[in-house]
């Protein structure tokens, strides 16, 4: 008699792994690498930095650079949400089950903008894959919201347009 095995769907976010940044300004490239890894696409930090060098500012990259890397370089459609609420972020994570890259200021020091990827979101907590930390970091909703810029980038279906 044959047995039936239950197959569980694996979502892109299930494949997220923490990737450390190799230099002080490379949180953006490391976060991009984490997002790509969820879809089986591997790039080195050096490859991403090399692509972005023409647009890179002295203190790192911005959302336009990140979107260009995905949309124009890789032909991967992304969505960028400005002014998103914590609940909106949680709903995107819960229902889309895709990696979400966020911009925030972990130290609350002026000029210390930083990229990370959402690892998990609950009603009152968030866990981030921070490329500057050796393990995922957890914040209460209130702690996070005071540091977050209210924007996030994610791939709704990672449509490859090639």
Q: How many DSSP-defined strands? A: 6
Strand order of the largest sheet: 1-6-2-3-4-5
Described by strand count, sense and barrel closure, the largest sheet is: 6 strands, antiparallel
Radius of gyration based on Cα positions: 16 Å
InterPro entries: Peptidase_C39 (IPR005074)
Protein name: Peptidase C39 domain-containing protein
Pfam families: Peptidase_C39
Domain Peptidase C39: 21-155
Structure in a nutshell:
One of its GO terms (molecular function) is peptidase activity. The protein is an alpha+beta fold.
Outline the structure in words.
With 162 residues, this protein is α+β, with helices and mostly antiparallel strands. It has one domain (25-154): Alpha-Beta Complex (Cathepsin B, Chain A), CATH 3.90.70. 30% of the residues lie in helices and 20% in strands. It is built from five helices and six strands; from the N terminus they run H-H-H-E-H-E-E-E-E-H-E. The chain has helices at 27-37, 45-52, 63-73, 86-96, 141-147, and strands at residues 79-81, 100-104, 114-121, 125-129, 137-140, 148-154. A six-stranded antiparallel beta sheet has the order 1-6-2-3-4-5, sandwiched between helices. Helix 1 packs across helix 2 (45-52). The longest helix is centred in the first third of the chain and has 11 residues, at 27-37. It is globular and about 40 Å long.
Draw up the topology in text.
Blueprint: H1 27-37, H2 45-52, H3 63-73, E1 79-81, H4 86-96, E2 100-104, E3 114-121, E4 125-129, E5 137-140, H5 141-147, E6 148-154
């Amino acid at each position: 008699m044959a047995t039936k095995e239950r197959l569980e769907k694996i979502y892109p976010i299930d494949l997220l792994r923490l990737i450390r940044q190799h230099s002080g300004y490379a949180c953006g490239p490391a976060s991009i690498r984490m997002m790509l890894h969820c879809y089986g696409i591997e790039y080195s930090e050096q490859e991403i930095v090399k692509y972005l060098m023409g647009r890179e500012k002295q203190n790192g990259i911005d959302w336009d650079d990140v979107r260009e890397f995905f949309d124009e370089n890789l032909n991967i459609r992304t969505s960028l949400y400005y002014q998103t609420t914590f609940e909106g972020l949680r709903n995107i994570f819960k229902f889309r089950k895709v990696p979400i890259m966020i911009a925030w200021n972990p130290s609350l020091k002026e000029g210390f903008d930083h990229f990370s990827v959402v690892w998990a979101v609950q009603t009152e907590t968030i866990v981030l894959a921070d490329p500057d930390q050796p393990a995922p970091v957890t914040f209460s909703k209130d702690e996070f919201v005071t540091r977050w810029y209210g924007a996030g980038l994610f791939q709704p279906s990672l449509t490859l347009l090639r």
